[in-house]
Amino acid sequence: MNKQELNEQIAIFVNNIVGGICLIKINTSTYDYRFEFINDGFSRMLGISKKETEMLLNNADKAILPEDFDKVKYGIRDILADNGSIEFEFRYVTMQGGLAWMRLRGNLFDRKGNESTIACIILDCTDEKNVENELKIQNELMNTLIESTISFDFNVRTDVCVIKENTDRHIPKEYIVDKYLENVDTSGIHPEDRKLFVDTIKSAMKRIRKDSFEYRAVPYQTDSEDYKWYKCNVMSVAGQDGYITHILGLVSDINAKKIEELELKLKADKDPLTQLLNKGATEEFIRNILVNIRKKKKIGALIMMDVDDFKNINDSFGHSVGDEVLAYVGKILSQNFKGKDVVGRVGGDEFMIFMYDISDKQDPEKIATKLQRQIHDGYEDDKVRDILSVSIGIAICPDDSNEFEELYKKADKALYVTKKNGKGHYTVYNESFDKE
């Protein structure tokens, strides 16, 4: 066999490999690229025509998933730096609109001026990645099973659920609940999470599926009134006739992990100037507390407060002094409220406080008087102190409402009355304000 025949045989061999073999020319100044050679096997690997393959490759920057584009970019730069054979994986959108995986292994083949040639092999590793992902899911499910504190078997046809609490893995406690989904209201699941719980179970009843979700509940079959965080993995099981007969669930305690996540979120929810909660976090925390107040029949108070004539402070002394005043007010508020009380800055000079579990309905009035005195008397600059005061509006929960929107509206109305009547004091909401 002469050299020409050998080259022809090699060309046939290369074209018949079911995988991508390519030569790519890249301008190292502009990073523009073009394919000098693509073997026929690349098209067969992708299951599309050669023309479609060329279209896909010449629009690779649009086909590659944006989250993976940096990985491809840095991989190509490593190859151009002649760092040896480089391998990386990335996802791309197929001609049919699906998502698939590719693995590229390449090295620098030639370099002339600002134009370099990369030789590479590209393989479809979608099936491998899918298997890898499935194994990961199965592993997570197995870990959940091992760590599980509660498991349940909901019989779809009889509407009976058997719950096993594996606090002692050798002697699990067993509870049988008739009409399981109808009794969710008395199951100890947080009111805001009951719909999620029921909807997930009902969805698993309609078609075979695996799902997971997080929810809050009081520990099962205990006298505890404190909600904890749990993760529930559910799986549908079908009978011989193909209809779903059971929903299996594995429940694990994720409270410690969730609290850590919430603490990190809390840091992100802080107002940088006052170190109090920002508006969104303040409202979220108060809404959650109101759920507990309704359940435990406690008394609370929503306090709205703002700095009187704050614009005048900014105009007279400058915005830096205005910022100092806000930071100072934030400090006073932090010193006076602790525990489950919620304190936040909800506007430029506006603050919102929720007092949790007060023993006497007069307590908010006492704290309002104390705050007004401390904020005015404690500021060091005499000129600022002369004009520094705060106005306060108070609404009581549940007397005025136990829903956030209504409680906020009434506390804000009380604040408006304070402003209207001369500022620098507090007002407790009463129904006569609605007639004004």
Walk me through the structure:
This protein is an alpha+beta fold and 436 residues long. It folds into three domains: 122 residues, PAS domain (Beta-Lactamase, 2-Layer Sandwich); 125 residues, PAS domain (Beta-Lactamase, 2-Layer Sandwich); 167 residues, Alpha-Beta Plaits (2-Layer Sandwich), CATH 3.30.70. The chain has 14 helices and 16 strands. It has a six-stranded antiparallel beta sheet with strand order 8-7-6-11-10-9, with helices on both faces. Strands 2-1-5-4-3 form a five-stranded antiparallel beta sheet. Helix 10 packs across helix 11 and helix 11 packs antiparallel against helix 12. The longest helix has 22 residues. The chain is flat and about 105 Å long. The chain starts with a helix and ends in an 8-residue tail after the last strand.
